[in-house]
Amino acid sequence: MPTSKKFVHVVNFYLKPGLSASDVKKFEECVSSLGKIESLIVFNVGKPADTDRTVIDKSYSYCLLTVFNDLAGHDVYQEHPVHLEFIKNCNMLWDKVVVFDSETIDL
């Protein structure tokens, strides 16, 4: 039976404190440009939601959610010129990046 497993890549960005509004806008525009990468099947950028439970970590600034058909699609994304340009142009805006990679399970 063929697998329907997807590869999920979640990145939490912790922007530097005290960034100017133009720096934040630059980050938002650049991170949004990643949605153009062809190997993506799901793309979302968001900020912490207005929820309040003890298990929720809202310490990050932005969360990037991407889904690919497989690891190969993710690998294309990682080396894509748009992704590399994003890192080059924005890495000075964040203090920390935390990545969660997972593979969906067939239930």
From TrEMBL:
Domain Stress-response A/B barrel residue range list: 7-102
SMART domains (alphabetical): Dabb
Protein name: Dabb family protein
Record Pfam families: Dabb
SUPFAM superfamilies: Dimeric alpha+beta barrel
Domain of life assignment: Bacteria
Natural source organism: Chitinophaga chungangae
